């Protein structure tokens, strides 16, 4: 974990209530896709945990949804705004277990970390495919970003207004993939758990107090004992998950 000051370089709306923010700062503490950052906001007691969408030397990209006062405050931030951010939080995805044809499944706010993961897998010579889930076409974001990487991308919408009608599990093939990586709301993760035929890694969303394991507020039970989503997670192995 590392604390640093970051400067907003851009903050654009991707879809209603969804924004992409790019920041300049020290990203050396970020070591794996699936990790998150914790952002201090003026007037707010608790920091806001946001998954890492992408990072490079001196550059951090996050994609966030406006769900409360904190993220609404973020949506109004102009370039040049300075933010106090904790980076390198959580355990990210383990790429060594992916096999040659991993399947990446993201739903809603769980989509951004799939982007950094896809880039890292491609750099290793793997051939990932991607399923993105939304409620309706108007909520779609980042499909073009994944396609620009040359990936096979399937979009699902609950109302059928774009792509496959239904949920992400309606697009999961019966065969042809070697591993599953996924992030999204708990009901989606449970459905992917039940539908997938391989092992995998699941990134969980949870309310966090400190974000680095001190407060124990995000503890969950696993087959191997209690784990803190912010510290031992947010990524858990399929075989250890208890529903």
What do you see in this structure?
The chain is of the alpha/beta class. It is 14% helix and 36% strand. It has four helices and 16 strands. The chain has helices at 69-75, 112-123, 143-148, 186-195; strands at 2-15, 18-24, 36-39, 48-51, 54-56, 59-65, 82-89, 102-107, 129-134, 152-157, 164-165, 179-183, 200-203, 219-222, 225-228, 235-237. A seven-stranded antiparallel sheet has the order 4-3-7-1-2-6-5. Strands 11-10-9-8-12-13-16 form a seven-stranded mixed sheet, sandwiched between helices. A two-stranded antiparallel sheet has the order 14-15. Strand 1 (2-15) and strand 2 form a beta hairpin. The longest helix has 12 residues, at 112-123. The protein is globular. The two termini are 29 Å apart. The mean pLDDT is 93.
State the end-to-end distance: 29 Å
Most strands sheet:
7 strands, antiparallel
Determine Rg (CA atoms, Å). Answer: 17 Å
Percent range of helical residues: 10-25%
Tell me the strand order in the biggest sheet: 4-3-7-1-2-6-5
Unreliable spans: none
Shape: globular
Content of β-strand:
35-45%
Instruction: Compute the average pLDDT.
Output: 93
Number of strands: 16
Helix segment tally? 4
Q: Briefly note the structural class of the backbone.
A: alpha/beta
Following the backbone from N to C, one meets helices and strands in this order, namely: EEEEEEHEEHEHEEEHEEEE
């Amino acid at each position: 974990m590392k604390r640093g000051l970051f400067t907003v370089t851009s903050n654009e709306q991707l879809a209603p209530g969804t924004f992409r923010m790019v920041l300049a700062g020290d990203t050396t503490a970020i070591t794996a896709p699936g990790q998150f950052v914790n952002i201090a906001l003026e007037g707010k007691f608790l920091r806001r945990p946001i998954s890492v969408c992408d990072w490079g030397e001196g550059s951090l990209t996050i994609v966030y949804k406006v769900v409360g006062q904190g993220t609404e405050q973020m949506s109004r931030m102009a370039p040049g705004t300075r933010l106090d951010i904790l980076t390198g939080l959580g355990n990210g995805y383990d790429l060594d277990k992916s096999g040659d044809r991993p399947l990446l499944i993201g739903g809603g706010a769980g989509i951004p970390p799939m982007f950094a993961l896809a880039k890292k897998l491609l750099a290793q010579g793997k051939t990932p495919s991607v399923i993105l889930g939304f409620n309706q076409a108007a909520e779609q974001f980042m499909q073009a970003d994944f396609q620009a990487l040359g990936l096979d991308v399937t979009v699902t919408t609950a109302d059928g207004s774009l792509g496959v009608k239904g949920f992400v599990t309606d697009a999961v093939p019966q065969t042809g993939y070697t591993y599953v990586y996924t992030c999204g709301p708990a009901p989606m993760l449970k459905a992917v758990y039940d539908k997938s035929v391989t092992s995998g890694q699941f990134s969980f969303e949870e309310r966090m107090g400190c974000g680095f394991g001190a407060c124990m507020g995000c503890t969950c039970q696993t087959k191997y004992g209690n784990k803190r989503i912010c510290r031992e997670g947010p990524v858990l192995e399929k075989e250890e998950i208890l529903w």
